Amino acid sequence: MIRLSAVSRCFVLGDQQVKGLDQVDLRVSRGEYLAVMGPSGSGKSTLLNILGLLDAPDSGEYWLNDEATASLDEIRRAELRSRHIGFVFQSYHLIPRLTALENIELPMLLAGIEPAERQRRSARLVERLNLGDRVRHRPAELSGGQRQRVAIARAMVMQPALLLADEPTGNLDSHSGAEVIRLLEELNGEGLTLLIVTHDAALGARARRCLRMCDGRIIEDVQQGPGDARG
Amino acid sequence: MRAADALGLMLGALSGHRSRSLMLLLAMAIGVVAVNLLTGLAEGARQFVIGEFSMLGRNTLIVLPGRKETTGGMPPLTGLATRDLTLGDAEAIGRLPSVRRVAPLQAGQVEVSVGNRSREAFTLGTSHEFFAIRQLGVGQGQILPVLPLDQAEAVCVIGATLRRELFGSRPALGQWLRAGDRRFRVVGILGERGESLGMDFGEMLIIPVASAQVLFNREGLFRVFAELRGPHFMVSGKRQIIDTIKARHEGKDDVTLISQDSMLEAFDGILGALGLALAGIAAISLLVAGILIMNVTWIAVNQRTAEIGLLKALGARPAQVRLLFVGEAALLALAGGLIGLGLSEALLWLGRQLWEIPLQTPVWARIGSLLLASLAALLFAWLPANQAARMEPLAALRPSGART
Predict the structure, then answer these.
(1) Entry pTM
(2) CB pairs under 8 A between A and B
(3) Closest Cα to residue A23, out of A73, A60, A54?
(4) Partner of B322 for a Cys bridge, out of B32, B118, B314, B389, CB 3.0 to 4.6 A?
């Protein structure tokens, strides 16, 4: 599903060149559950942004579903994001003036989906994520866990194959965090490819495959038994 | 994106930033008010002047003593004559085949008194025909009687204001008044009509032309009004009058002819230019509003970078982001424009109630100001909206700036 070949991405900070990604090769198959770990500045988020088509590599090639993406224009990239990729952010990124339900429906609005179909899909997700009446409220009136569940609903509403989560539990207490992770893992169990960037070692240990990054390179790529960390 | 959804998002964003929206709304409304009000004033002035001169009637010619040598521009309203226009000239003009009526005019200020009340009054010496030519009617009594032009009858018709000032609440009809060293009997009182062509008929004393010649001790006429048999006699009538005067004045056509059309042409040109100039000034205020829209949209784009980044991450195409921002500006401009239009129309209506000037904005100015407002909004919102559309989703999403 995902194939990176010698992908590099450099940033200029002041007069210094920082290698966000340095000749990274990676293959991810459909339905995998990956954690990306590493210290700050190791290139985790850069990798996530490249995979999410939010950023383009300086060199190398990225195939998403066998489509080479490095030279695509922004219109096509937006279309791929819309149809294939869901994002979950540490700070939720909900639009404060919209209600939770309107936030959930936003991607479908942008994609031009009919109101009846929108209602059908969002109702199913609201039920599934156990949000109930809370979706009539604005984000400011929701708890952190509820906000992240709304964000997950928004990420899933276009039925993507790939979900990219950047520190999804970083702003949550342990109880809410555990609930969010359980939800994400449940979705992964249904075939969703899940990639989580995290500092949290316990969270990293739960994934079936763990990438460790340093200075823009993947220094470790381990398959972990599903049972290893659970229980 | 469906149009209704896009509209919903725009309206949501507008009501979400209320003070910003209100500010733009106000700027746009003021711009449109300025355009509409100023063009309304200019058009009102033009209509007023045209209305005044239209009272002259399309068939009427004014004959002034004295020749104006230059052509074009304003005809002289007062002329220094080399040779007087006489009652004989007026009668000769009246006999021409293309002329229906003729009225000589003698004018001056005179002291008018009744008992111990007295005042200065503008006095016209003329004939029975003058009332028909100027469509002047009496409220009470009769107009001047039909008389030979050289017969100085001691009768007068007075304006309504003059009547009140001289007679108070007492009846005036049939009473005598003193004008200069002469006495006149009031046979008629003019109806309320107000001003026309710079003459306030309410303050007017009208007497037979021969009486005025005696009163002012002056032979020469101030001017002669000639009403032609129809508008198509204008060219032949002018020629006949010139020829007649030439024959009577030893070969010199030392008169100037003024028609409604020549007056209107001169004034219309001036006032039309004035109107355009005012509209231009007003358009500048719309431009200012447009620049304000640009700045505010720019601020909005910067304030909402996170939102823009999010929309992009969720799959919004650049054109969609641009549409949202430009659409917001256009909605504001349209709403502001409509508010401005309503406000200025209300002000013009108020003006019409207060003054007699027909303050009215031409339809093209109303539609034009609205279009201009929308155009300014679109034009000036385009740049910042484009910036938003081109924004990297990544840069927009990461206000903290820490890239790891």
Answers:
(1) 0.67
(2) 81
(3) A60
(4) B389
